[in-house]
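In this supplementary section we document a worked example of the pipeline. Step one takes a protein sequence of length 294 as its only input; no multiple sequence alignment statistics are reported here. Step two produces a three-dimensional model, which step three serialises into structure tokens for compact storage. The input and output of this example are shown verbatim.
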Amino acid sequence: MNWQSVAFDWNQARAFLVTAEEGSLSAAARTLGLTQPTLGRQVAGLEAELGVTLFERVGRSLSLTQSGVELLDHFRSMGEAASRISLAASGQSQTIEGQVSITATNMMATFHLPAVLQQIRETAPGIEIEIIASNDVRDLTRREADIAIRHGRPKQPDLIAKLVRETSGNLYASKEYLDKFGRPQTPDELSEADFIGFDHPERFIPMLSTFGLSLTRDNFKLNSTSGTVMRALVMQGLGVSVLIREDAERTPGIELALPSLDPIPIPVWLVTHRELHTSRRIRLVFDMLAEALS
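The serialised model returned by step three reads:
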């Protein structure tokens, strides 16, 4: 191989790849934790080394040139290779120190993780924990997180998943709201209530219809992608929403909106990448999470 022909470095390649995927220098800079001028210099350096123009400015955004489009797949292959190298290296690490990132829902991160994180700190003070509180499903195969706590079993063959608990959810409302609305005795009566949606109501409505509720978009005057926000809205007396049983039990002033309704099964899965599971620090955190959440 003619190594002298490879004039650009990985930072330049990564700058181009992330900018192409994010659509702008500002978004790419936030993703990489760099300043926009630094990222811009890396992209310009790559263009200079390759002798091609990769982007053209369209208004406030960037658009790939034909050369950029043709080269993008090659740079994606480089990014995937770099991710595999990082995964393999992390899997070989046998030190009980370093960073471990955990992604979990807002409710899980707020109410369930603090106690086990204290145990981890006491057991392995050299481990640095990053909590990614989000309901978005992070891609563990691309190192967007090391460990995920999910309510659905992953399908990717490279991921290891452990079912740590089976819990349930139900429909809850504040005592204040039910005092005004009335306490429904049937699903039809509850179908007249105000509901607080999770994410898009169009995804919420079919799930609730399996419990006999006839809801439409008009039932959902409030929606949020955050479980902690939904909980706060329920506490405020603004409507009915689904809460996990353990979270509802620690929420003052709320009660079941329809006690006769069957609970909604909710599994709790702990997930990591197969290669990362051989890392001592990640394995330690994984096992302590599994024990605490089970």
